[in-house]
Fold Dephospho-CoA kinase.
Amino acid sequence: MSDYIVGLTGGIGSGKTTVANLFAELGVTIIDADIIAREVVAPGSAGLQQIVEHFGTEMLNADGTLNRAKLRETVFAAAEERRWLNQLLHPMIRQRMLAQAQAATSPYAIMVVPLLFENGLECLVNHTLVIDIGKDTQIWRTIDRDHVSKTQVINIIDSQISREQRLAKADDVINNEGDVESLKSQILALHNNYLKQSEKAQ
């Protein structure tokens, strides 16, 4: 088990996956809440069954998988539906994240959690790392990646805590407005620091 866990977060489109992959290249165990969130609603899962019972079969694609776009659209339009979904999935996701942390073999592990602060999950980690970009960059990167409307991206940004609040809560910040080389040098410096911190934590 890794005794030292870094919680990696950032707004939508900030580059969390890119940063996590670069840490993984350095041999760090990555625990990704988004991957776990997909697993708990996979075909045949209790999570998917309860979603269909609650929202109806229109939440399913033809192949029986979850229609994530339809679900996202539904829950972002209604706060009480979003609360219901969170109360269903968050305990399942948290349980799996902790199990993966127990199984981690690197000196420290990184837990990638998009809504780390929003869902009060910083209590699960020793240290927080925020990936930061400006709002305009956030909007165009997300539109480019997800092929969604600007309105939908702004709704998602508005549903997350503000950039200022996120930065105020961060122990460390990576600026991801620059090129890959700038990103790699920031990550390497943090990696060396986290290795030292993990030695102290043992």
Remarks:
- The two ends are 11 Å apart (CA to CA).
